[in-house]
Design goal:
The relative contact order is 0.13. By secondary structure, the chain is of the alpha+beta class. Helix 10 crosses helix 19. It contains 23 helices and 50 strands. The longest helix is centred in the middle third of the chain and has 29 residues. The strands form 10 sheets. A 12-stranded mixed β-sheet has the order 25-24-32-33-34-35-44-41-40-37-38-45. It binds zinc ion. The site of zinc ion (ZN) has 4 residues, from loops.
């Protein structure tokens, strides 16, 4: 990624949002030197919280302007030390950083970030408002079926007013779909690129664009130096343009924003290293609906212009009628336009040649010369193209020009873009000849006949954008905010099925992202630690760096719009799965090596070996099975096991960690050897039996931000009395059979009848019905009905049915019939849990009793298996009495939240939206947030309701090219958290008509910890007297509003390598925060006040409690 454009930070005292901060090398304030005593104090008091911080902040802000100045100054010092460079000089920044170790600080601070919450930014087009306006009536428009009959006044063009036409040849290469990435490369892509090298050289007027760097990099590695130099020349002479420059053309619905950043960074870094090139235009013709997060990330990566294609046909028509198909795409909170990306929306049905020259596909098809006889492709409109010659050129040119002129009527300028390509085009050299030669003849004729008032030529995408912006300034184009979900290409064919298709791999994608993030962070920490081996560990030639690079490539590849979407053939899906599994193993290797270095373990000075010091407690047998935990075998002979916990987040964590141990007779010791409270529970293997060789041992791990902390689990002898170990209370309802009770659990209470019951922690009481399904939540004095159930959709009995892409339900969802279930309830001091086995789902609800993020809501795990069903789509639903008035909120790419409205004028499937991380419904008092660890489809189909799709099994193809149904369903683990929150006071985070939503502070924290669980590392050596028991960085606690998105070694800028960091400050809705939560989860501001207080008084406030 082009770094200088990423180096923007939103600062100031006001709550800021959605901006990037990238430190080149380390910030002294965050990773201070050893002399920084205050930070050491912080470290010694990791768990300090202090009361009334907000009150103090308010009074200090009100009373004393000096205080305000001091806070501002302190923030500036933290974010931008006096000697740092203003944004304009960033380019110089890296040059001055010496490669001394540890690297010096160079921090960039940008005050230009604008966020508007209390006033809704006014834009020419706001997508939710546009949805209110559109009728969605789909009348027949004639040759342009989804539009209207375009009239052209031939006298409009004259000498001064010429039409400028840019024909942009392109080839859409999917890195995996019907074939695997490598198969496509060998069978087609390689030939396309080889042909390009040869054919572009034949005529300097020829142009070509390329998007997917994954393929380009693979091809480059096979070129000799002469060929590489030709490529460089073609790029720098603008005959070949690299568009977007991502590793793939990413999906925009399911991809996490950080994965998009990864795939862009991999591509852009490759281009920097090999071609010294950064793309300026983006090309996204095939992803199935467009996210508003994408232009923001493109903007930060240096992209100025973007092109999009797959947008709802009614939206296209509406924008075309208003000549608003070109707009400045702006973020919903942006009042100044600093996030604008100039965007061109293609007007017609497809990106193929019949739908790109003008409104009439029957005519445009005649100008796809690959469809000449004997090239293996035909026009479905039955009029084939003809070779252009002197006799027909005049007629042919005028026929084509008429289409160009009609197309130009939909835009504000006299410049026309006519893409010329399709999937895997130009793989035969004859195709280059027929397309380029015939078009050149047409151009020559058009340009020579001045009376036609046209200039036509081959162009790159940027050639087109430059010509448009030469005619009209950016300010003359409308601004637009919002996104383009849910896509429909025709009729009621809404592409909302792919939000959920192949959820097993959507989950794996997130697990891999979390591992890459953790591995990059811990490797960077090891690298900058200055400890023995730290130099070596991040070296380019080191196997760890190579493993991590390959892992990033696998994650980037899966962001492809047939990867994470679940829309590839079975064999291709398995190939992605194997690549992701290998990548997870690579990350685990990096994590355990880095942990050993940071703990100064044996062999830490030589981190290049393949020695396994720790097993990560998360193993998979094969790519398509669920991950499992190790069973830690301890007993009389070998009675202890050391566990190291890694916290990759920048908040201190107090969360329950669970291990599987071979005996229930254990205790858990902290790093000083003192026992900690632990809860032991039996494991149900089947409905009627309990394991006698495995037990769950849980304790609260206290791990500071960006730290490693170790614990020891110790088996006790028979006559030893455990200190702090508590056996869970177990009840089984509705069981007639005998239950074999393992030793230590003789008191299990088995009842032959069903019963309603509840479980609770210090915040929440959760009540369940006789089936063991949630029916209400109580927090404080307030009880909220929350009825959980499961339901199914079926497929229609018509020819057009649901498939991998499309969701075409046969009606409303039908509740699953659950007549009776065996309900198991486990209760103890650290957590309480309810387990029920219902058809297709093992449903487990856990309520943790901690002061950490896991204690904030109810955790739901569903292990789903629909492999025995047929045309079956499973949903989980929540019914509440929240009066959300048709409104609900869902996120985009786990980055921002957008307001949705349920429209009666749209079919059910159109009201489904992507949910990469969260959705919520709210009224004036209450909000229910559903958090997910996997990207899935979500909707609110009735007031007070929210439903999420869990898996889909579809017996047929949905006629979009895949050629198969979705029948490879896997046993899939879904993780959710639900939070019910009540406004603490009359408070509004944003104006009522604001199109954005914002997560509550607690929902944000619960989501971050759900996505980034504490990692459990099991020491392989039984005797290790060398390793330290913990590693901790001073003051790594940033406050809950800051997310350390990435910290990575090997960032390449101007021929040098750096450690790079992306810090994301999120705007959070604090209207739901109470005093207790504020203390438990301090924001950056509160931590800062504490620091200032300390500096002034040289003591911590009286009200501070040490935990
Ligand atoms: Zn594609």
């Amino acid at each position: 990624m082009k770094l200088k454009q990423m180096l923007a930070i939103c600062g100031g005292i006001v709550v800021a949002s959605i901006c990037f901060l990238l430190y080149l090398t380390m910030d002294m304030a965050i990773f201070p030197t050893k002399s920084a005593t205050i930070q050491q104090e912080f470290q010694n008091n990791q768990w300090l919280h202090f009361e009334n911080r907000l009150k103090k902040l308010e009074s200090s802000l009100n009373k004393n302007h000096n205080d305000v100045g001091e806070i501002k100054q302190a923030i500036r010092q933290i974010i931008a030390p006096e000697d740092s460079h203003p944004l304009g000089n960033i380019q110089e920044g890296p040059e001055e950083v010496k490669h001394d170790f540890p690297p010096a600080s160079a921090i960039i601070y940008n005050q230009t970030c604008s966020i508007s919450l209390h006033q809704t930014p006014k834009n020419h087009v706001q997508m939710l408002e546009l949805y209110e306006d559109i009728k969605f009536d789909n009348p027949d428009g004639g040759v342009w079926k989804q539009g209207w009959k375009i009239e052209v006044n031939d006298n409009y063009w004259n000498k001064q007013n010429k039409l400028k036409v840019f024909v942009v040849p392109h080839s859409h290469n999917d890195p995996g779909w019907i074939r695997t990435f490598e198969e496509y490369y060998l069978s087609q892509t390689k030939h396309i690129l080889n042909n390009m090298l040869e054919k572009l050289q034949e005529d300097p007027r020829r142009k070509f664009i390329w998007a997917e760097i994954s393929f380009f990099a693979m091809w480059w590695d096979e070129l000799d130096n002469t060929a590489k130099n030709i490529v460089k020349r073609l790029v720098h002479s603008n005959q070949l343009e690299i568009v977007t420059g991502g590793w793939v053309m990413n999906d925009e619905a399911n991809s996490h924003w950080l994965s998009i950043v990864h795939q862009l960074t991999e591509g852009h870094q490759w281009l920097q290293r090999n071609l010294n090139y950064t793309p300026t235009s983006s090309w996204s013709i095939d992803p199935f609906g467009m996210s508003a997060t994408q232009p923001l990330l493109l903007n930060k990566a240096g992209i100025l212009n973007s092109l999009i294609q797959r947008v709802h046909y009614s939206v296209k028509k509406k924008l075309a009628l208003e000549k608003q198909l070109e707009f400045r795409w702006r973020q919903m909170w942006d009042s100044k336009g600093s996030t604008d990306v100039f965007t061109h929306m293609m007007p017609f049905y497809s990106y193929d040649v019949p739908h790109t020259c003008g409104p009439d596909p029957k005519i445009c098809c005649q100008f796809d010369f690959k469809r000449l006889p004997n090239h293996g492709l035909k026009c479905p409109w039955h009029i084939p193209p003809v070779e252009i010659n002197d006799r027909n050129v005049a007629e042919r040119a005028e026929t084509l020009l008429d289409q160009y002129r009609k197309k130009s009527q939909l835009y504000k300028t006299n410049v026309v873009l006519a893409p010329l390509g399709d999937d895997f085009r130009y793989d035969h050299s004859t195709e280059w000849d027929v397309q380029y030669n015939n078009y050149q003849k047409l151009f020559d004729h058009m340009n020579a006949n001045l009376g036609l008032h046209v200039h036509a030529q081959f162009g790159t995408l940027t050639d087109y954008f430059n010509a448009v912006q030469k005619e009209k300034s950016l300010g003359e184009f409308p601004s637009l905010s919002g996104d383009f979900f849910t896509y429909a290409d025709r009729d009621d064919h809404y592409w909302s099925g792919y939000y959920t298709s192949r959820p097993f791999y959507k989950r794996m994608d997130r697990v891999l992202l979390q591992y890459i993030r953790s591995a990059e962070i811990i490797l960077s920490l090891a690298h900058i630690s200055g400890l023995p081996g730290s130099r070596l560990i991040a070296e380019k030639e080191n196997n760890l760096d190579r493993a991590l690079t390959e892992a990033r490539h696998s994650l980037a590849l899966f962001q492809h719009h047939d990867g994470i979407t679940g829309t590839a053939k079975d064999a291709v899906v398995n190939d992605y799965g194997q690549k992701m599994m290998d990548a997870i193993l690579s990350c685990q290797s990096v994590i355990q090596q880095s942990a050993n270095l940071l703990l100064a373990g044996p062999g830490a000075d030589d981190p290049t070996t393949d020695t396994i010091f720790y097993n990560i407690d998360d193993v998979k047998q094969t790519q398509d099975t669920l991950s499992e935990q190790y069973t830690i075998t301890i007993g009389l002979e070998l009675n202890t096991k050391k566990i190291v916990i890694f916290n990759s987040l920048t908040i201190n964590r107090h969360e329950v960690v669970t291990l599987i141990v071979s005996t229930a007779n254990v205790e858990v010791l902290d790093q000083r050897g003192a026992p900690v409270v632990c809860q032991v529970a039996p494991i149900f293997e089947h409905v009627y039996s309990l394991s006698t060789s495995k037990y769950r041992v849980s304790f609260i791990a206290k791990v500071p931000a960006l730290s490693l902390t170790s614990y020891v689990i110790r088996a006790l002898s028979d006559n030893e009395i455990p200190r702090g170990t508590i056996t869970s209370k177990v009840k089984v309802y509705n069981l007639y059979a005998e239950l074999q009770k393992p030793r230590g659990f003789e008191n299990i209470n088995v009842s032959p009848s069903a019963s309603e019951f509840s479980i609770q922690n210090s915040r929440i009481v959760a009540s369940f019905n006789k089936l063991g399904l949630l029916k209400a939540l109580k927090t404080g004095k307030h009880t909220y009905p929350v009825h959980l159930d499961f339901a199914r959709y079926g497929a229609r009995r018509t020819n057009e049915r649901s498939g991998a892409y499309l969701f075409l339900p046969d009606g409303d969802a039908v509740p699953l019939k659950i007549e009776s279930t065996v309900v198991k309830v486990i209760e103890g001091p650290l957590y309480s849990q309810v387990i029920v086995v219902i058809p297709y789902v093992v449903h487990t609800v856990t309520l943790y009793n901690t002061t950490g993020a896991d204690g904030l809501g109810l955790e739901i795990q569903n292990i789903v298996d629909i492999s025995k069903t047929s045309n079956f789509e499973l949903v989980m639903r929540f019914a509440t009495n929240i009066k959300n008035n048709d409104l609900f909120y869902s996120d985009l790419n786990a980055y921002q939240v957008v307001k949705r409205k349920r429209f009666k004028k749209l079919p059910l499937q159109a009201n489904y939206y992507p949910m990469p991380s969260m959705a919520y419904i709210e009224d004036k008092i209450t909000r229910l947030t559903l958090l997910t660890a996997t990207s899935l489809g979500v909707s609110s189909l009735r007031d007070g309701h929210i439903e999420v799709m869990l898996d889909r099994r579809l017996n047929q193809d949905d006629n979009l090219g895949l050629g198969q149904g979705v029948l490879d369903n896997k046993l899939t683990r879904h993780l959710f958290r639900i939070l019910v929150e009540r406004k603490t006071q009359p408070c509004q985070a944003q104006s009522e008509d604001h199109p954005s939503g914002f997560p509550t502070a607690l929902a944000h924290i619960a989501s971050e910890t759900l996505q980034n669980p504490l990692l459990r590392l099991l020491r392989t050596e039984d005797e290790d007297t060398v390793s330290h028991s913990s590693y901790s960085h001073t003051s790594a606690e940033f406050g809950i509003d800051y997310v350390l998105a990435a910290l990575k070694t090997g960032i390449f800028v101007k021929n040098k390598e750096y450690v790079g960091m992306i810090l994301h400050r999120k705007h959070l809705d604090t209207c739901f925060m109470d005093q207790k939560s504020l203390e438990q989860f301090p924001s950056a501001m509160e931590l800062l006040i504490l620091k200032i207080y300390y500096q002034r008084h040289q003591r911590i406030p009286n009200s501070t409690k040490l935990h």
